[in-house]
Amino acid sequence: MWIIIGLAGTALLLFLITLICLGIWTYRDAKLRGLEAGMWTAIVVLVPNFIGLLLYFLIGRKQQQTLCPSCGRKTEQSKPYCSNCGASMAQVVQSLVASKNNSKKPLIISLICVVMTFIFMFVAFFASMYAQPEMFSSKSITIGQIQTMKPGVWKMSFWYFDGEKSRAIEIRDGNPSALNVSAEIEKGKVELGLAVDGKEEKRISLNNIDSTYVWDLSGYPENSRVVLRLYGDAAKGKVNMNWKD
Question: Distance (Å, rounded) from C-alpha 67 to C-alpha 31?
Answer without folding.
Answer: 11
